[in-house]
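Chapter review: from sequence to fold.
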Amino acid sequence: MPHIGHSLGVELHETPMIRPGEKRKLEEGMVINIEPLITDSAGETYHLEDLFVVTGSGPRLLTQGFAPRSIPVIGEPISA
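The token string follows.
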């Protein structure tokens, strides 16, 4: 994989890309998707993805916890 993350905006993958040789700097207010490619012991590969916003005091995680075990129904509250 050529990158481990990228900025999030209008396009699927936007600059700055989180990869060796990237020239553009991260700026306050940017939302960054970090998506390392993981290979498990069975040889299956998948992405783990987390969203961060760049703040003046460092990154702030936007992704909160695990996805629900079932697909939520729109209009119904999600139980914890």
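Two observations follow directly from the output. DSSP finds no helices and seven strands in the chain. The first strand starts at residue 5 and ends at 7.
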